[in-house]
Design brief:
By secondary structure, this protein is an alpha/beta fold. The protein has a single domain, classed as Ribonuclease Z/Hydroxyacylglutathione hydrolase-like (Metallo-beta-lactamase, Chain A, 4-Layer Sandwich), CATH 3.60.15. Helix content is 24%, strand content 35%. The chain has seven helices and 14 strands. The strands form three sheets. Strands 1-2-3-4-5-6 form a six-stranded mixed beta sheet. A six-stranded mixed beta sheet has the order 7-8-9-10-13-14. A hairpin with a 2-residue loop joins strand 7 and strand 8. The chain is globular. The structure holds fe (ii) ion. The site of fe (ii) ion (FE2) has 4 residues, from loops.
Length: 210
């Protein structure tokens, strides 16, 4: 599987505040080439750039790691453009409604597997940053799309509504850090890291409280 990444810029809004933010958008492709099938993960801020990056390839669906507005509010438009479904964990229903009202999505479940050709994308539910956060494990590439659950240097923020620090630490300990140590971690914002680099710092995260 090819994992393509690009950055778009826009606004993150929650609890009445608004912040400038850059998001990592991922395109997962079954095989290299113009005729490959792809999933789009967290298309953010700039639909034209998403369409440009996807090109002529056939889109299978739009997968969301969670329903904060910066990750999800473009998803219905992109999904409609390609005639495909949005996939989201229903734990983020309330956040989804705040951005996208009654727009439809297909519910993701912990342990669910999506397929691209012979390769698999495994959905792991990792609440904490939001109740419906998921990460996407791609065993064939030894890679994890970690959304806002794990960044280079620490867990996702838990200071705003629907977030909980103890819950994200539990998700890291029980789910994310149970993955192989050599996995690359490709987050929703900022630089990549590895499971081994971050799991070694779990006690540090807990001690500082973020
Ligand atoms: Fe987020």
């Amino acid at each position: 599987m090819q994992i393509e990444q690009f950055v778009t810029a826009g606004k993150f809004r929650l609890d009445g505040g608004e912040w400038d933010v850059e998001n990592n958008v991922y395109v997962l492709a079954a095989t290299p080439g113009a005729d490959a099938e792809v999933y789009i993960v967290d298309p953010a801020h700039d639909a034209a750039e998403v369409y440009r990056r996807v090109g002529d390839r056939r889109v299978r669906g739009v997968i969301l790691t969670h329903a904060h507005n910066d990750h999800c509010e473009l998803a219905p438009e992109v999904a409609t453009h390609y005639g495909v479904d949005v996939y989201l964990h229903p734990g983020d229903q309330e956040l989804w409604e705040e951005s996208n009202g009654s727009a439809p999505y297909q519910p993701l479940a912990h342990g669910q597997t999506l397929h691209l050709g012979e390769e698999e994308i495994t959905v792991l539910h990792t609440p904490g940053h939001s109740p419906g956060c998921v990460v996407l494990s791609i065993p064939s590439e030894a890679a994890l799309l970690s959304g806002d659950t794990l960044f280079n240097g620490g867990p996702g923020a838990t200071g705003r509504k629907y977030s909980d620090f103890d819950t994200i630490i539990n998700s890291l300990r029980e789910v994310v850090f149970a993955l192989p140590a050599d996995y690359r971690v490709l987050p929703g914002h900022g630089d990549s890291t590895t499971i081994s680099a971050e799991s070694a710092r779990l006690d540090e995260y807990i001690a500082r409280g973020y």
